[in-house]
Structures are given as C-alpha cells and as structure tokens.
Fold each of these.
Amino acid sequence: MSIIESSQKRPRILVVGGGYVGLYVAMKLQKKVKDHGGIVTVVDPNPYMTYQPFLPEVAGGQIEPRHVVVSHRAHLKHSELVNGRVLSIDHAAKKALVAPVSGEEFELEYTDIVMSAGAITRTFPIPGLGDAGIGLKTIEEAVALRNQVAERIESASNMTDPVARKRALTFVVVGGGFAGIETIAELEDMARHLIKLNDRIDEKEARFVLVEAMGRIMPEVTEEQALWVVDHLRSRGIEVLLNTSLADATDGVLQLINMADKSPAGTFGSDTLIWCAGVMANPMVRSTDFPIEQRGRIETRTDLRIKDENGNPLEGAWAAGDISAVKDVTGGLPDGTCVPNAQHAVRQAKLLAKNLYASRYGVGTIKEYKHKNLGAVAGFGRNKGVAKVVGLKLKGWPAWMAHRGYHGMAMPTFERKFRVVGDWMVAWFFSRDALQLNNLETPRAVFEESAKPKKAPAAK
C-alpha cells in the first residue's frame, strides 16, 4: 500500500498547484490541519514554486536561478506532496484524478479543494511561433534565454556571413506589459555587457526590438510614465514598435503587420524571439465541474469560495490567483475582476487559508477579499526603472530601488530573501553573471563521445 493510499481516509485539503497560492495556503494550514487529524495534499508537476517577477533578472544574469524558486519539500514538511498533475475533478463526488510524473494515475478523495493551478503563457496561432519562440514563465525558460543570448553573441563574433551575423545579433520581445518591458531591458543590459567583453563585435551591430499590438505599453502605470518608458528604451537603442503585431515567424523570419490597417510593417530574421504577450488561466479548469467564465477562469466569490450557477458558495471548493475570477471591489480590469499578478495571488492565498480554516474548523470568521492596489514597480536593468507607489511616480534609480525593495520583501521565505539580496550585493560589486553554460540540454554528449569505440592506431 502506498503512502497516498494509506492517507485516503484522513480529511484532506487538496491543493491543486504549488505556485504562489498553493505554497502560501499549504504553509498557513499544514500544521493546523495536521493537529485536527487531517492532511494538506499539494499536487504540482514541479517540486518548487517560482517567483516569476524575478525571471527577467535571472535571464539577465542578476540572480542565481535556484534562488528564485522555493522548495516544496523544504518548506511544506507537514504536507503530503505529489509530484504530478490533476487531470480532472469531480467535485460532486469530491474526487480528483491525478497523474504522477512517474507511475500510474490514481484517484484522490478530498474534503476541501483549493484551485490554485495558476496561469500559462497565452499564445496565438501564428505560423512558426511554436518552433521559433520561447516564453518567460518558468525558471527553465529564463536559464535557457540567458544561455541563448550569450551563445548567439559569442557565435556571431566568429561569423563572416553578414546575414547570419545580423540575425544572431537581433533580439526580439513580443508584448509590452511588465514582463515584456523588463525582459527586453534586462537582456539589452546583459547583451551590451557581453559585447563589451568581445572585441570582435561592435556594440552598434546588436539590434533590440519590442513589438506591442496596442498603442501604449504598461497599462498598469500612468500614460505619462508609459511615454517616459518608451523614450527611455529608445534612448538605449531599443526599437519600440507600437500598434504592431507578429504575423509570421516561420524559420525565424519575422513578419510584422500594422494593427491599424493590417499593412506589412517589416520583415527580418532573428534567432531570439521571446513571447511575453500575456497569460491565460490553466486550461485544466475545463476538466472540472466548476463554473467557468468567458475568460476561462473559475467563477469565485469575494470570500474566495467557488460559486455555483446561482452565485451561492459550493461547499468545500475554493479558488484564488490567476485561475480565479474574483471581483475587485476597489476597481480592476474592465470586467471588474482582480488582475492576474503576484500581489493579488499572495494576499488572496493568506485570506483563503484563514477562511477555509474558519469554514472547516469553526475558528475565526470568513471575510471578503478587499485589497487596493498599492501601485506598480518595474526594473529595467541596473539603476533603471519606473514605479507608481501609492500615487507617487518614480523614475530611474529611485524606481529601481523601489522595485528591488518590494520584490525583495515579497519573495517567499526568509531563506530565499537572503539569497536574492546576496546575489544583488555580489552583482553590485562584481557586475552581472552572464556566463553561458554549455550543453544543458545534452549533458551526456561529452561522455557519449568519450564512450564511443576508439579506432586502433594505424600500424607503422
């Protein structure tokens, strides 16, 4: 009998997803539920949660990759952890079908369920995008992107074909939200740092392009600040193409179109295409019997209980974060729901844990989620940024410090906070670590080459 099977009869809180919401809910509840004879079970395909706001800095060589992920095993010692995916949920029967990373599928019965599977990268049916592009939602993508930029610069320095060289030194980001802006800015900073170390490349050869389909970038900040950001990026040699969309990326040849009249807006080759054009709720919600709204999120009340068709709470069903449509009583998206960001996810998770505990064990009272957005901060590489904090508009170094201060505090667990701050201190004195690590995708290549049968030396 497996450990999972032996715990089936214990009252279980099943947490679907171990990201912001899942990690915090489990950390807040695991000991309390255990004391009541129950168990918190977290199901996630990864053994860690990722602090995604730091991914641009990981890609840019400012932070060590392992320092922006939080180990489930290290911090959820009183929880039951399942490395796998929830395939479907039958809440009427309070059962979930789970597919572990290794092994056969099995059913889990639960008393309460917390839907916290988060969001995935939202893409469009653009020819060639799936082959040529890379996202920036995972730590693996951030590491691959750092290596990609470093490798392309090093390889270009040895190229004599001007077309191939130009393509290798062209870096494109699609999406003008926070993720896209921070990504293009960090990578431009890192790329110019690497180019200065290589005397076979002129800095003017590098090309950086930001493509945004809307008429402005970063809707979270004021229009005045958004215009300043555009001017700032352009002053660094970054091309900012507004009202422009990617139409085709076949074989890495990018075709752009003007969104106003659908006319061609340019064609060029690039070996590095980064897709940061938004997110969508994890599609696994469609394999549940929970009500789903038009944006693909679970219908959720302000007390973070999942609604039924009549708006009443479903017993034992909870949701928070990017996967949920929670009404923003202070004003949010045009549809009146909380925006999908870490600020809401962390705060919703803490309230959900309190509300679930109050509902299940009668300790405390159930409260509604109400959080006024305190502002937004963004870093654009070393000493550069923009911020709007409680109405105060900041630019440059003060905004960069506000960005680091906020995210340093928001990083889960004291251990990880110290590691991240340590990385920043090291980078301050010794510059960013943009070293390329070879053969990460094929780590056995050198060994396999060594293990090949060797030809006997020719007889003299």
Amino acid sequence: MSSTIWSVDEHLDDILAAVKPLEPIELQLLDAQGCLLVEDVVVEVALPPFDNSSMDGYAVRISDVEGASEEFPAVLTVIGDVAAGDGGLADGRSVGPGEAARIMTGAPLPAGAEAVVPVEWTDGGTGGGPAEGMRAHSDAPEGASGEVRIHRPVTPRAHVRAKGSDVQPGDMALRAGAVVGPPQIGLLAAIGRSTVRVRPRPRVVVLSTGSELAQPGEELDGGRIYDSNSFALTAAARDAGAIAYRVPAVADDAETLRTTIEDQLIRADIVVTTGGVSVGAYDVVKEALSSVGDEDEAGGGVDFRKLAMQPGKPQGFGAIGPDHTPLLALPGNPVSSYVSFELFVRPAILKLMGRQDVHRPTVRATLDTDEALASPSGKRQFLRGTYDAEAGTVAPVGGPGSHLIAALAQADALIVLPEDVTSAEPGAEAEVILLR
C-alpha cells in the first residue's frame, strides 16, 4: 500500500487517465439502447415516405366540396377504400370529379385527391346525420361504395401529412456522440436502420469479500451479516448504463478470491470488489490481487491507497490479467462502498462508454440543519442528504457513520464538505452532488 495520502481528485484523475473507451461495435437497435453513437446517421428515405392521411375520412377533390354544409351537403360517389399498407385505390384508379375514396389514418393519399375530409364531417355513407366513425370494412364492405354526404369544405392538403415533412433524404438524423434512447431508436427504425455503430455498454463484475457475509434469504448464525454491498453496487452499475454481473460473496481466503477474480475476467470490462482493503489481518484483497495476472507487464498490478476523504479512506486501483482489465477495490462498509462507487466507479463506467461528461450534476444549496456539521481537518467529507430543489436547501440524513445504510436509502444527494472546512454552520452554502 502506498504511504502517500491521495486527494479525491488525484485518485479520480488517475482512474480516468487509465480507463479508455471501449472499441465501437455494430449492434441491433434494441441492444444499442443507452449506448453512445460513434457515427453520424444520415437519412436515406423520406419520412413519411409518401403523402398520407392524418385522419380516418374521405379523400376528395377541393372543388367537389366547396361550399358544403349540413343543409346543403356535397354528395359524392364512393369508389373504394384505401387502408394503411395499401398502395392506393384498387386497379390504380384515381379520384375523379364527383368522387371520393374512404381513407384510413396512415394510408397513402390516392391519385387525384387533394385533401381529406374527417369522417365526423360526413354522414359516413349512411344517409343520416354526422357520423361518429366508420363501420369496420369486414362488417360493412358496402361502405366502400355508394354515396357519402360531405357537410363541410376543406382547404388544399387538409389532413394530409406531406412526404418528407418529418425528414428528407440527406438530412442529419443523429450525430456521433448522441446517446441512443427510446426516441432515437424510434427514429432509427422509422428511417429503416436495423443496426447502428456504438460504443457498447461495459460489462462490470461486482463481488464482495468477507467470510462474515451471508446471502439474503439464508439463516444468519453467529457473527454473520447479509451481503448488501454487492447488490447495491450491481444495481448502481446497471443504473449507470452497464451490464453488471454480481458474484456471490467470497470468503476471506486469498487463493479462493484470486481464482474467482481470474475466472470472472473473461466477462469483465471492469472489476469492482468491496471489502478487504483496510489493514486488518483478514483483509485479503491486497494479498490476492498481488498475483492476479502479470504485474511485470506495463500497466499491470493494483495500487492500494489512502485517500483524504471520509468515508472511503482505503481504496485500490489498477489493472489485472492479460488484458489489463481495470479493477477498483472499494472499502467494505456499506456507505463507504456506495460513496466510493459514485465518486470513482461510475465515472469510470461512463468513460468506458465514451461519455464526455462523466460526473453527477452538482448544485449549491443552503444547509438545512439545527446544528453545525463537523468535518475532520484535511479530509473531504461526503454526508448523505436530501435536496429540496424548490427551496434550494439540503438536509443531512443520518450520522457520519459509514455503516448507516438505512440513512443512505433515504438520501438523494451527497453534501460535500471540503478539506479545509471543519464546521459547517446552519444556513451556510455547500456543494451538493445529486444522486437522482
């Protein structure tokens, strides 16, 4: 372990300098969700690809419905149906003078038609008053023929979505660097793209160490506690956009831990351990990691450090295995491990994904507390808090203890007290890291 005391910023800078974005790959659209585009996507087909109706109604010529009213309706001959997916009227017919075609939403505007009259502005072919809708073609095929009375005129191109009114060939659909979310996937599918080139979501392996750890659902016997860290950190990795694998807790045996980590490297772009990085007789992570992979190769080995922070003083970072897979070794106390994940692992995951901004948003807020908050000199302290955006305040939750996981579950922010602050008074302004 290094005897140097590292600052939070130095440790993070060292991690981000060593972690490189993953190589781009071509993925199916749904597999690319949450990934970063590495190419500009240019539209190749117009959207919509043809003039189509935005309403269920009748495709007509403007001159045929000019001056139409309920008292003096325009009476037109219905020459057929145009449904979504059709190429137009049967036999390539056009809408001629005195004619109309029943048309459904999304169906192509037939030749000769200049606008669409909503069905509610007609009698629906019944010979009665205003219609509320159309009868299904399967129930009343005769609706595609006969006569329809139009009760209102329309303007040219009324209720018609023009070809290319959304995007046209040559338009820029998405630029490199965009994050592929649901709307982007919808656009890519709409313009006919089935795959896209992106930086993939990193694979994160998370494992806890400690013979005292039991799996939730097991019976607890003397001296054992449930493993919460691996669940929390796996969920946090997924929340950051990674594909995360949780490994059941490993006992305090260096050889078992070493073998477990080596077995996991095949599916890891980054490994996160929690526990076993302090100075106790059973803190075996340092012992185990000293011989995982080849330390003699450039970039190999894990450095264990002391950081000027609370919670989270003991930390480890390095590269292991033949591919120099990044490994971050976090403390075992639940709050320490989660705070460490937010400060160091989450930015590393986002860097692997190719993101430019890898940090949580921060704000300045007024401390809403009844008494001053104490902080150790020379250490940057991170306290759990709840942030009120409307009031611009932040209130501490729970005490400073690194085992207080119940308070962590209530928090949505971290209150940052700098190294040179030993007391933060009520009403003082503080930096706040937003966690949600």
